Amino acid sequence: MAVKLRLARGGSKKRPFYSIVAADERMPRDGRYIEKLGTFNPMLPKDGERVVLNAEKAAEWLSKGAQPTDRVARILDDAGLMKREARNNPKKGEPGKAAKLRVAEKEQKVADAKQAEEDAKESAKAAEAQAKADAEAAAAAPAEEAAPEAPAEEAPAEEAKSE
What confidence score (pLDDT) does residue 103 get? Predict the structure, then answer.
């Protein structure tokens, strides 16, 4: 027979009150138990009379090999009757799938915005370079334009001759 030290619920709806009991693990939660070890009232403040425990009986059951549940192990640890190992769940603080997707989408938007900003800067630089080139070409063009205009005037005369 495996014995568990566990909580048996009492109290009314929305007003829990628990008995700390030693019970056969095959019995229902609020069913038959072997011995009552104390009470736990979660409605009271933590610094008050929240837990009433017969430490001698609890120590006796622990020495016989009774296994406490997680909550009872916390209560016994607070009473100094046993050492409870701290639980470690590294995945608990990890965000879920939807949150990871939202973060990825946000990072993608930021990356797209940076890329668009860089493209705008590059196009502005290219436009500025083109404007400088056009200005230089315009400055050099008046000297060059005088020469092409003369042959252009001659061209209509050639057309007239051919007719």
Answer: 94
User: Mean pLDDT for each 10-residue chunk of the chain (163 residues)?
Assistant: 90 94 89 92 89 92 92 91 84 89 94 92 86 79 54 54 55
What crossing angle do the helices spanning 70-79 and 55-63 adopt, rounded to 10°? 120
CB count in 10 Å sphere of residue 35: 16
What is 3-79's CATH topology? S16 Ribosomal Protein; Chain: A; (3.30.1320)
How confident is the model at residue 147, as a pLDDT?
52
Question: What is the C-alpha to C-alpha distance for residues 60 and 35, in angstroms, rounded to an integer?
Answer: 12
Is the CB of residue 3 less than 8 Å from the CB of residue 61? yes
The CB density around residue 2, as the number of other CB atoms within 10 Å, is: 9
Count Cβ atoms below 10 Å from residue 28 Cβ, excluding itself: 9
Residue with tokens 């997707």: 101
